[in-house]
Amino acid sequence: MRGHRIEPGEIEAALERMATVTHATVVLREDVPGDQRLVAYVVAQEPFDADAVRRALGEELPSYMVPGHLVPLDAMPLTPNGKVDRGALPSPDSGAARTQPAVAPANALEASLVEAWQRVLGVDVIGTTDNFFDAGGHSLLVVQLHRLLGEQIAQPISLIDLYRFPTIASLAEHLSPTGTDSPALDASAERGARRREMMRRRRGG
After folding, report:
1. What is the rounded distance in angstroms from the CA atom of residue 62 to the CA atom of residue 158?
2. Is the peptide bond before 47 cis (omega within 30 degrees of 0)?
3. CB neighbours of residue 187 within 10 Å
4. Which of the four CATH numbers 1.10.10.410, 3.40.50.300, 2.30.110.10, 3.30.300.30 does domain 8-88 have?
5. What is the CATH code of the structural domain delimited by 108-204?
6. Average of per-residue pLDDT across 1-7
7. Rounded to an integer, what is the distance from CA 114 to the centroid of its chain?
8. Best label site of 74, 111, 113, 163, fewest CB within 10 Å?
């Protein structure tokens, strides 16, 4: 997938080693032509914490083998001979309409992250509690986001951080545990404001 060799069996084994997961099936889907997505279907104990599972996988597997979508199921669909019916696995619900208002950024860092998320995902609205992958993100977009954040944010951000902290709020907390704005964050916000002002002037011209 996108130049990387994917081993679904290795991902399934890593998932099934987790105490909360009883069965896992990993597939490479292309529901929209040209948009490949790595999806893991899991039968797991409730409550299912997809972000925690994704972080655990990120500590064991390369980032490109961490599924962008984790779909909990009550049971795997089976064929008459008892094998997983892959054709009956549901499409991940990444295109669902927003049902709650987007949570606004609380500080300069979150504002910079919101701007980056919007640019990479191609959306007008993103909340600080929205999950990057549930909003349509995938491994290729993670790389683009990582490159963009390297230009916008003063603090170093690793690629795996974007898998471990897939919401703006969680990533901002990881980068700034005190929750306060630093001079570096103020500088990042100032750069973002200058870019937005330049874009407004171009549109106005």
Report:
1. 13
2. yes
3. 14
4. 3.30.300.30
5. 1.10.1200.10
6. 67
7. 13
8. 74
For the chain, where are the alpha helices, taking DSSP H only?
8-16, 50-60, 108-121, 139-152, 159-164, 168-175, 183-204
Q: Where are the domains of the chain?
A: 8-88, 108-204
- Average of pLDDT values for 23-44? 82
Rounded to 10 degrees, what is the CA torsion of 98, 67, 140, 135?
A: 0
Looking at the chain, the whole-number percentage of residues with pLDDT higher than 70 is: 78
Query: Which residues are CB-neighbours of 47 under 8 A, at least 6 positions away?
Result: none
- Name the band, by pLDDT with cuts 50, 70 and 90, for residue 1: low
Run of H or E residues at 172: helix 168-175
| pLDDT, tens digit, 9 for 90 and up, residues 97-111 | 454 677 888 888 898
Q: How many CA atoms lie within 13 A of 200 on its CB side?
A: 6
How far is the C-alpha of 21 from the C-alpha of 157, rounded, in Å? Answer: 29
pTM over 0.85: no
- Kindly report, residue by residue over 126-175, the tens digit of the pLDDT: 889 888 887 878 778 888 999 999 988 888 888 888 888 889 999 999 98
pLDDT for position 23: 92
- Residue 75, classed as helix, strand or coil, is coil
Strands 21-32 and 35-44: antiparallel
